[in-house]
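sorry for the late reply, my laptop died twice this morning and i had to redo everyting from scratch. anyway the thing you sent over, i finally got around to it. pasting the sequence first so we're on the same page, its 491 residues, then the predicted structure underneath. double check i copied it right bc i was rushing
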Amino acid sequence: MSVQRSLCNNALAEAPQPQRALPHIHSHRGITDLRSYQMHSSAGRRYIRQHRSIQCLIQRQERVNAFLVHADHVAFFLHRGRFLTMMQMAMQSTAGQTAPLVPALTNAACLWGVRFANAEAVRAYEPMYLARAVQALKGPLTDMSANAIVQTIQADVLLANYQFAMGRLVEGQHYCNVAAALALSCRLYNIRTIQARPRAGSFHAMDFDLPAPGDAVEEGERIRAFWHVYMLDQMWSYACKTPPRFDPSTGPPIDTPWPMEADDYASGRFPPNIRGSRTVEEFIGGNPQNDRGGASRPALYAKAATLVGRSTMLAKHWSSATDAEQFAADFVTLDALIDEFMHALAPVATAPDAPTASKLLLVHTLACVASNQLHKHFRQGDAPIANKDYTAAISVTTALDALNPAQVGFVNPIFAILWTSVSRALIAEMVRLRGAWASASIQVTVSAGDELQMFENEHSRVVAALAKITAVMKALSRGCPLMGQWPLMID
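ok and here's the structure:
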């Protein structure tokens, strides 16, 4: 029996049967008929209240189900089976009982559920759920259980992505920073650390000493919580041009092993003897020794986000580096790592279904944007470095052929930023081609004619690539308004 049917049947069994008709009051019948009317009226009101309660339960279940369809695109990291069980318990709990899910998470899930709905009448509930989730997050954290804190991190992550998707980047960064602060305070970067003692550092203003996880699922949720917060921080710091909280020079060393799928922890595929040490630094250094679990989809996602963060950081110092030799060495190492990472990825076209294709496309796009970031200042240099950002941009648009917006419906909001970055690289190449075409057109030679044809062909390719990105973003803008803002971001 489904959760929805179970809730409905339980509530109906407890509800009184409706009366055929309520008696009319006649003044000559006296107090007896008045009491009878009051009794029937009370029963009727109870029935109406319980009927409304049933409808609310059904609606909430529908919204949670709608949320879970696209939950992976908005950084949902909890175990689905356990989340659904706790959600059912929360909906069946009575006043005075401690709910198994924090209200902020319940309302954030429903918020996304109505956002994913195609009906405008349902989306009208978004302000209500947003206000409830925001209000619920204002409570104190000091008396929360470990599970409640992890759930609160999840609520912050969901709200961050919601605000980003709606085009409210400042509000999105606020919730992203709150989630990062909680992850730091709980030392989620130190899970399964090989270090005997936690490293000292002023990375957080408060401490939450979480007890040991109750089982493998809880430990997996904590690991996944950290990495989803880390990825959010890396990607949206790049998008908003702000320093990341998990900065390699000022942030904590990350020892937590790479994340796996939530079901992998439940099924025992996370070995108990795994220990971590400088997980990100070992990856950047090209050391595979500390790469257990590093081939999972969440791990590839985390690695791709890391590449974006590192390439952005390195590109910022390309003209101000005090040690030119060290900068060149770091550049070559990171460039080679990005190439190796991209070549090892499965083609997006090999994905078995549309949701899987969109997730794999995100990893490809992040890696391409990392290459784009690394090479964008060298467009006027010598080949092959000069055109590498353009080559990466074309790779992204080619991979878009495997994405059908009508089948996907919604993608991670960061795509709006990534595709905008790709569009900038394409526009820069268009400007270069037009300049080269103008130079070649003044030469009256056979070779100049061949060059003109080559420039025209390549220009047409760039125009087609831009048109493809524009069409995809327009198709997805209804669910993610940020997609509709991309011309403004390019300007």
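Residues 115 and 123 are 6 Å apart (CA to CA).
thats about all i looked at so far, will dig more tmrw
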